[in-house]
Amino acid sequence: MALANKMKNYTDYDVLYAMRYTKPFLNEIIHKYDEVIFLPLYPHYSFTTFESSLDDLKSTNYKGKVSIVNPFFEKKEFNEIIKENISKEIDNPKEWNLIFSAHGIPQKLVEKGDKYYAHVSKHVEILKEILPEFKSISLAFQSRFGPTKWLEPYLDDELQKYKNQKVVIYPLSFMIDNSETDLELKIEKKYMDLLDWK
After folding, report:
1. Confidence tier at 142 by pLDDT (50, 70, 90)
2. Strand order through the sheet with 96-103
3. Whole-number Å distance between alpha carbons of 141 and 129
4. 3-class state of residue 6 by DSSP
5. pLDDT (tens digit, 9 = 90+) per residue, 38-51?
6. Using omega within 30 degrees of 0 as the cis cutoff, is the peptide bond preceding 153 cis?
7. What spatial distance separates the first Cα and last Cα of the chain, rounded to whole Å?
8. SS3 label, residue 139
9. Could you tell me the CA-to-CA distances from 96 to 7, 53, 85, 114, 137 in Å, in that order?
10. 3-state DSSP: the chain helix, strand, coil percent, rounded to 5?
């Protein structure tokens, strides 16, 4: 809601938000309008995120005009914001290892043609070009479930490479704080603290 309210300062359009699994649902608000701009809050494409949002839109049977904002991880303005968010937290980048942590998906989805891994990997390469000189910059994945293989490297494995070194983790998959991602990173930190890991 806070993001939607802020966006109202930059447009003459009504700015509303809808959720997939809790109210307000898209079907409850979209039919009030003859035309909408549909913005899935995912910078990268995946069957599980961007495409599922389009499925939600289709399920409303909305009859008006729709403009869809496509994945935007390559947009210069977006990446400048990421650069600013990271740079303001780090005094001397050369002392720090930067890990971009993305939400994982099962490897079998990539094998079926999901573009998510390609998009996230390319996004990290773009950010490497514009960020100051860190000790290292890498990509890892979190939020895996069950016995099936998910995208690698896993975040906990990647972190083991930097024992007793300075590490900053930047979640990359969502536009706003995701409770699952936030909780996992807090659990990861507590685990590393128990190991006397810095």
Report:
1. confident
2. 136-142, 96-103, 166-171
3. 21
4. helix
5. 999 999 999 999 99
6. yes
7. 36
8. strand
9. 33, 36, 15, 32, 9
10. 45, 15, 40
CA nearest 169: which of 157, 192, 185, 180?
185
pTM: 0.85
**pLDDT tens digit string along 144-194?**
777 889 999 998 899 889 988 999 989 888 776 555 555 555 544 544 444
d(C-alpha 162, C-alpha 185), whole Å: 16
Q: What is the pLDDT of residue 182?
A: 54
Distance, in Å, from the CA atom of 29 to the CA atom of 18, rounded to the nearest integer, reads 8
Confirm if 64 and 36 have CB atoms less than 8 A apart: yes
